[in-house]
Amino acid sequence: MDQGFADSVKNFGLEWSGVFTIVFMFLICFFLWRTLKLMPRTKPVQIKPEAKSSIGWEQIAGVDEAKDELREVVDFLRDPKRFRALGARVPKGVLLHGPPGTGKTLLAKAVAHESGAQFFSQSAASFVEMFAGLGAARIRRLFREARKHAPAIVFIDELDAVGGRRGSDFSGEREQTLNQLLVEMDGFDTSGDLVVMAASNLLEKLDPALLRPGRFDRQVFVSPPDVSGRERILEVHTRDKPLRDVDLAEVAAQTSGLTGADLANLCNEAAIRCARRGGVALCREDFDQALERVIAGVQSRRVFNDHEKAVIAYHEAGHALCAELLPSVDRVHKISIVPRGRALGYTLNLPDEDRYLKTREELIDHMTVLLGGRIAEQLVFGAVTTGASDDLRRVAQIARAMVCEYAMGTAGAAQRAITDGEGDSEHFRRVRDEEQQELAFEATRAARGLLGGHRDKLDELAAALLQREVLERPQIERIMDGVPRLRRAPGGELRAAGAPAPALPEAVIAAVRAPARAKGAAEPPAPRRSTPPPATPGV
Ligand SMILES: Nc1ncnc2c1ncn2[C@@H]1O[C@H](COP(=O)(O)OP(=O)(O)OP(=O)(O)O)[C@@H](O)[C@H]1O
Ligand SMILES: [Mg+2]
Predict the structure, then answer these.
(1) Residue 472 C-alpha to ligand 1 middle, in angstroms?
(2) Lowest CB count within 10 Å: 114, 265, 393, 482, which one?
(3) Looking at the structure, do residues 326 and 419 belong to the same domain, yes or no?
(4) Domain limit, last residue, from 158, 188, 221
């Protein structure tokens, strides 16, 4: 019986094994097909120049250098013969780089609209996939389509996603994608009028092979706008909004360090506020409140006990008093102990003008203002709180940059920046740490001197804050009446006002004032901008 059963099972197996194999194969094929279906399909987006949502040059303001540079490319694509006659060739690649929100993607959109050429856009993030080789295939496809429609522009947004230095990727997929991009841009069979544009936030992290001439020959820095640029951006974004008593030049002056995206957000917030209060036109107050919201965050509903309130008031008064006394710090525009965002209170300093260079003394003054809050707490309550963590972090950042990047340490021979590279000796690390400590001590001593010497004003500011919660510029001026700003003597030491200001030689003053630059003289290189954020979120 058993034998018979075993035989029948065996026969069944032998007879049906072929069918099972086919079913099994079919199932495998089915699963593979399903997986492929699930994979995201990304296609390069082709933007037609006459598209409805197109952006024109006039909608981008404050980035004139970048616009000029791109206009050249647009001219080339419109009339290549004129350039060819002189032996010029199309620039292969234009790389727009700069901080987030400065208008890089917007510039690319304008090029798409203005050039009249075919425009293909794809984000670099869509190339990278879990499956090996897929990114490279997508790059090939993007370039193949663009070449078919030459003259054309290929735009790769957020290039950082694939363009990082090679040698740091374990899976190899990103590197393979990057290699394919390198080949397409300047490889064996590159032909046709194809301009590659890309946008990136971090030029330093990109692979050097991408940046060489022949690939991205042109690198355009899209910087945060200056004061006139900000005014024009505000004009662009308030074009469709009714305004009443708003001086956009004044708003521009108050928004140093903000980018185009921040300003667009500011105008939108002001419009929302106006609509919520039932107004018909945006007024100055809408902009003031929107600015506060953009810089310091949304008002929160935390409730503090009386002691905590007093600590916060003295903390902010400490920041404000130091800022009012020190010569190189921006004027205090507003002090508030109404909590916003993560800050429990804040002091808003607004610069009178855009600045591009900072001296060692100015940086120390900036640290002094940051430390003023904690020193005031210590001076009045004899104890420190956890509230100063953000200030301390920023002091550490400034001190580190002063020593490691700008060689502004205290050691007499600090003529070279003390880097914190891997190869530094133990001795160097110790020197670096000591120098940073010393800079922070210098600022602490200054803050202690200022607050101790003007204790009455500190009390007055804190009392006014506790009473009203927010102090505006006129109220601050009233309290500080009769206390002039200090002056800095040539040696860097702080003195009461009245001491003579350091004099420059006559010839230097004349040269600085001379309106026109001599013909043919070289332009000085644009210094790197380093505007600290205007708000000092306090406790
Ligand atoms: N120069 C400008 N003129 C007018 N509007 C601007 C400008 N710069 C930025 N904006 C506004 O900010 C928004 C965001 O800009 P965009 O997307 O171009 O920034 P981005 O530089 O590409 O930033 P990211 O590096 O984060 O991609 C735009 O839609 C626009 O409303
Ligand atoms: Mg962008």
Answers:
(1) 32
(2) 482
(3) yes
(4) 221
